[in-house]
# Entry
Amino acid sequence: MIHNRIFVKFLALVVLAVSTQCVARADGGKSCCLTTECAEKCPAKCNEAVKVGAERTAEYIPFLKGKRVAIMSNHTGMVGNKHTLDVMLEQGVNVTTIFSPEHGFRGNADAGEKVKSGVDEKTGIPIASLYDGKSPMPSAETMAKFDVIAIDIQDVGLRYYTYYVTMINLMDAALTYGKEVLVLDRPNPNGMYVDGPILDMQYKSGVGRLPIPVVHGMTLAEIALMADGEGWLKDGKKLGSKLKVVPCDNYTHQTRYRLPVAPSPNLRTMLAIYLYPSICYFEATPVSLGRGTDKPFEIYGHPDLKGKGYSYTFTPQSVPGAKNPPQLGNLCYGRDLSSLNEEAVIAAGINLEYLIDAYRNVGIGDAFFTKFFEKLIGRGDIRTMIEQGRSAAEIKATWSDDVKRFKEQRRKYLLYKE
# Structure
């Protein structure tokens, strides 16, 4: 049976979950519980693999049978070696439409790059891009082709990671056109903590849609339930019983779930995913965070850091997934973070020390930050704090009340043990 919101709290009490505390970065980002090397280094329960929502076909295939189905997914929507789309088709589900998010259905487009609509070559099913630069809402013609939207995509748990924004847009569309929404849940690899300021909604954008912290610690199904329950959808309306979720098995918010597939072209390792809450702010500066190198989101640098005590160097190049990266072709001096301990990075949470370090040493003052910074961090005063010389610890303390308030607010929507 698929769990409506009315059953969410009951489900949270009965799901038996195990924590896969894999500290060793033994497999370069593949699912640790599926590798012998990591299993030997982990606690005994590490080999009890998490079962994602899409894998639990008995929970949702009967619901989809006899309906016209649209699926919002990409290359991460895998069940073993099969895509969820193929699983549905093999089970006789009538899939009429594919929705593709940022990076496209196959996941190979650059960050922010417009993605065209088209046809899936394997199945012949039309692909409707939700990231084509025209409108985040599907057309009335597209919405008329299905009865239910099934969502299966791997998120990484950051407010500025856009997959949840696409989901919310589709939920709004479902409200407008009277459609049902089914979320096939997947673990949040950054789901073990909450950190960062709650979004000041004057900075609402394509990289910040809901009043949630930077690191919200929730899965997509939990976010869907919260957005619906808190009245965050269009005009404060609710999907109610038309929103259904299929949770994961053998998962808690302390599970160290290692992604079997890179969620986007430049988040290639678990360390990059863990550093993402601290490193992404360089997107709003002239500093390179490693796009166009073999260590994106694991390094940072700038040509003007030469001669200032930075021995690590790199030169961004044009590569698939980073066609025109910041500082393209320029020799950058900076820091290599790729040897940091994963658990230490997780424990630190959002660490603005890297950003502050670069700001102080690049030495260009007001020209360092673009307006995009406020959209990423979600508040208008943090740039000023950095410019005034406040420490990372002092700045983090300013959002501690946000974290406490949000953790209490979200509690009734959680599907998994904290």
The two ends are 24 Å apart (CA to CA).
